[in-house]
Specification:
Layout: E1 2-3, E2 10-15, E3 18-32, E4 37-43, E5 48-52, E6 55-59, H1 63-77, E7 83-88, H2 93-98, E8 106-110, H3 114-123, H4 125-128, E9 137-139, H5 144-150, E10 155-161, H6 175-183, E11 185-194, H7 202-213, E12 218-225, E13 233-240, H8 263-269, H9 274-279
Parallel strand pairs: 7-8, 7-10, 8-9, 10-11
Antiparallel strand pairs: 1-2, 2-3, 3-4, 4-5, 5-6, 11-13, 12-13
């Protein structure tokens, strides 16, 4: 829920018993797509802000943290990622980061709401510039759950960049979806998904983690600190039958200019506080 969005006031997301605010200059966009309510605000100090169904998704100032961490930890854990599937991530930031890996030859970008991508092209150009000119990217706008169930393709890495569980994304958190995703992994295949906030969503994390342990040999949670989201702490879940995330195997893809991810952060993100260890027992 977002309140107080008049000129020179505050856009505030009320999340359960807490709230987060950005001071805004003006609203740039307000429209309901077939799937969700999309709003874009110009903020005073954080660039443009995207809001989906009343929830803050990203700001221009801070988006690099989420996108670097959902992408680079799995892609550097894989010895030579060539084919990558991105489910969700309509803003384009996850695909942008994947393309920084020179070993990657194909990125299938499956987003249910094409309007999110179109809005990003106008208001978040640093996320989308160059994507349509890169021949490695296949734009496949549609239902990611259906795509995973029906595709004949196989992938080295699958990245699930979904919104919080809802009518349109809830199916991305089910056993059936992950079993289908496992079936389209190559040997040494990896899946990483955003997996919510350990302060507010411990039950979701616990259920997902324990469900995935019945499907994959390796299930590891890792954390990043993202000021756009409630509490500032966010989790991602790494799963694989063949690989663990604690070894950086991809030595050839040298990437400069990253602002959050590095080899130390890779290792440190996997070291969990005691309260998070308790959640995933």
């Amino acid at each position: 829920m977002v309140v107080n969005v008049k000129k020179n006031e505050w856009a505030t997301e009320i999340y359960r018993d807490s709230a987060l605010s950005y001071k805004i200059i003006k609203k740039l966009y307000d429209k309901k797509s077939k799937f969700q309510h999309i709003e874009i605000f110009q903020t005073q100090g954080h660039g443009n802000l995207m809001v989906l169904d009343g929830c803050f998704m990203l700001t221009e100032k801070e988006e690099f943290i989420y996108h670097e961490m959902i992408v680079h930890l799995p892609l550097f854990s894989h010895p030579a990622p060539k084919k990558v599937l991105v489910i969700g991530g309509g803003d384009g930031g996850t695909v942008r980061e994947v393309l920084k890996h020179k070993s990657v030859k194909q990125v299938d970008f499956v987003e249910i709401d094409e309007e999110v991508y179109n809005v990003s092209k106008k208001y978040f150009k640093t996320l989308t510039d160059g994507l349509e000119k890169d021949s490695r990217v296949n734009f496949l706008f549609g239902d990611g759950i259906k795509f995973v169930a029906e595709t004949k393709e196989k992938y080295d890495v699958i990245l699930i960049d979904s919104t919080d569980p809802s009518d349109i994304s809830g199916g991305l958190f089910t056993d059936e979806f992950y079993k289908n995703a496992k079936n389209i992994l190559n040997k040494n295949g990896i899946i990483v998904a955003q997996s919510e906030n350990p302060f507010f969503d411990a039950n979701i994390i616990n259920r997902l983690h324990n469900r995935l342990k019945n499907i994959f040999n390796t299930v590891r949670l890792y954390l990043a600190f993202i000021p756009t989201y409630p509490s500032g702490c966010w989790s991602f879940t790494f799963v694989s039958d063949d690989l663990t995330p604690d070894i950086i195997r991809n030595k050839k893809n040298k990437i400069s200019g990253l602002k959050y991810y590095n080899s130390d952060v890779h290792k440190g993100a996997l070291l969990l506080p005691e309260f998070v260890k308790e959640i995933i027992k």
